[in-house]
Fold this sequence. Notes:
Elements: E1 6-10, H1 15-26, E2 30-35, H2 39-51, E3 56-60, H3 66-78, E4 83-88, H4 103-107
Parallel strand pairs: 1-2, 1-4, 2-3
Helix pairs in contact: 1-2
Amino acid sequence: MSEATLAIVTGAAHRLGRAFALALARRGHAVLVHFHSKDQDAKQTADEIRSLGVPAFLKQADLREAAQVEDLFKLVDALPHALQVLVNSAAVMTRSEARSLTVQAWDD
Length: 108
Protein backbone atom coordinates (compact mmCIF):
# COMPACT_ATOMS: atom_id res chain seq x y z
CA MET A 1 0.00 0.00 0.00
CA SER A 2 1.17 3.51 -0.79
CA GLU A 3 1.93 6.00 1.98
CA ALA A 4 -0.81 8.40 0.93
CA THR A 5 -4.21 7.62 2.39
CA LEU A 6 -7.29 7.86 0.22
CA ALA A 7 -10.11 10.36 0.46
CA ILE A 8 -13.31 9.85 -1.53
CA VAL A 9 -15.16 13.05 -2.30
CA THR A 10 -18.56 12.61 -3.92
CA GLY A 11 -19.61 15.49 -6.12
CA ALA A 12 -15.97 16.58 -6.38
CA ALA A 13 -16.19 18.04 -9.88
CA HIS A 14 -17.27 21.51 -8.78
CA ARG A 15 -18.64 23.73 -6.02
CA LEU A 16 -18.05 22.57 -2.44
CA GLY A 17 -17.01 19.06 -3.45
CA ARG A 18 -14.13 20.49 -5.48
CA ALA A 19 -13.05 22.66 -2.53
CA PHE A 20 -13.11 19.62 -0.21
CA ALA A 21 -11.12 17.52 -2.70
CA LEU A 22 -8.44 20.18 -3.13
CA ALA A 23 -8.18 20.79 0.61
CA LEU A 24 -7.67 17.07 1.25
CA ALA A 25 -5.08 16.87 -1.54
CA ARG A 26 -3.18 19.76 0.04
CA ARG A 27 -3.07 17.67 3.23
CA GLY A 28 -1.45 14.85 1.27
CA HIS A 29 -4.41 12.54 0.63
CA ALA A 30 -4.82 10.74 -2.65
CA VAL A 31 -8.32 11.68 -3.83
CA LEU A 32 -10.98 9.73 -5.65
CA VAL A 33 -12.87 12.43 -7.56
CA HIS A 34 -16.46 11.22 -7.95
CA PHE A 35 -18.74 12.94 -10.44
CA HIS A 36 -22.11 12.26 -11.97
CA SER A 37 -22.24 14.31 -15.17
CA LYS A 38 -19.60 17.05 -14.99
CA ASP A 39 -16.80 15.06 -16.61
CA GLN A 40 -14.77 18.04 -17.86
CA ASP A 41 -14.98 19.74 -14.46
CA ALA A 42 -13.97 16.47 -12.77
CA LYS A 43 -10.94 16.13 -15.08
CA GLN A 44 -9.88 19.68 -14.24
CA THR A 45 -10.23 18.97 -10.51
CA ALA A 46 -8.18 15.78 -10.86
CA ASP A 47 -5.50 17.62 -12.85
CA GLU A 48 -5.25 20.29 -10.17
CA ILE A 49 -4.95 17.62 -7.47
CA ARG A 50 -2.16 15.90 -9.42
CA SER A 51 -0.37 19.24 -9.78
CA LEU A 52 -0.14 19.24 -5.98
CA GLY A 53 1.89 16.03 -6.19
CA VAL A 54 -0.72 13.55 -4.99
CA PRO A 55 -2.66 10.90 -6.91
CA ALA A 56 -6.16 11.58 -8.18
CA PHE A 57 -8.60 9.01 -9.52
CA LEU A 58 -11.80 9.68 -11.46
CA LYS A 59 -15.04 7.74 -11.08
CA GLN A 60 -18.35 8.55 -12.73
CA ALA A 61 -21.38 7.16 -10.90
CA ASP A 62 -25.02 7.91 -10.26
CA LEU A 63 -25.09 7.43 -6.49
CA ARG A 64 -28.85 6.83 -6.60
CA GLU A 65 -28.06 3.48 -8.26
CA ALA A 66 -26.83 0.75 -5.88
CA ALA A 67 -24.88 -1.07 -8.59
CA GLN A 68 -22.95 2.09 -9.43
CA VAL A 69 -22.11 2.65 -5.76
CA GLU A 70 -20.83 -0.94 -5.64
CA ASP A 71 -18.64 -0.26 -8.69
CA LEU A 72 -17.22 2.82 -7.00
CA PHE A 73 -16.18 0.76 -3.98
CA LYS A 74 -14.73 -1.98 -6.22
CA LEU A 75 -12.44 0.71 -7.59
CA VAL A 76 -11.55 1.79 -4.05
CA ASP A 77 -10.66 -1.81 -3.18
CA ALA A 78 -8.33 -1.97 -6.19
CA LEU A 79 -6.43 1.23 -5.35
CA PRO A 80 -3.07 1.10 -3.54
CA HIS A 81 -4.20 3.52 -0.81
CA ALA A 82 -5.99 2.90 2.48
CA LEU A 83 -9.38 4.62 2.64
CA GLN A 84 -9.36 7.14 5.48
CA VAL A 85 -11.80 9.90 4.53
CA LEU A 86 -15.25 9.98 2.93
CA VAL A 87 -16.88 13.31 2.13
CA ASN A 88 -20.44 13.07 0.80
CA SER A 89 -20.87 16.27 -1.15
CA ALA A 90 -22.87 15.01 -4.13
CA ALA A 91 -26.28 16.55 -4.59
CA VAL A 92 -28.96 17.06 -7.16
CA MET A 93 -29.84 20.72 -7.33
CA THR A 94 -33.57 20.71 -8.00
CA ARG A 95 -34.93 24.07 -9.07
CA SER A 96 -38.20 24.19 -7.21
CA GLU A 97 -40.00 25.70 -4.27
CA ALA A 98 -38.70 23.85 -1.19
CA ARG A 99 -42.20 23.19 0.13
CA SER A 100 -43.23 21.45 -3.07
CA LEU A 101 -40.29 19.01 -3.27
CA THR A 102 -41.07 15.32 -3.13
CA VAL A 103 -39.39 13.00 -0.64
CA GLN A 104 -37.40 11.53 -3.54
CA ALA A 105 -36.15 14.99 -4.52
CA TRP A 106 -34.98 15.59 -0.92
CA ASP A 107 -33.22 12.19 -0.90
CA ASP A 108 -31.46 12.96 -4.18
